[in-house]
Amino acid sequence: MKISTLGTGNMARNVAGRWAEAGHAVFFGSRDPDKARSVAAEVGYSADGGSNQEAAEFGQVVLHTVRMPPSAFLERPAALEGKILIDLNNRDFPRPAPWQGLHPSLAEAVQEAHPSTRVVKGFNTMAMEIFDHEPAQLKELGVSAFLAGNDEDAIDVVSELARQLGLEPVAVGDLGQAWLLEAQADFIRSIMFSGAGAMATVSTRILPAAPSTRFGGRRQGAYWQRFSYRADLPYRPGHLPPTSIALV
Question: What is the pTM assigned to this prediction?
Answer without folding.
Answer: 0.86
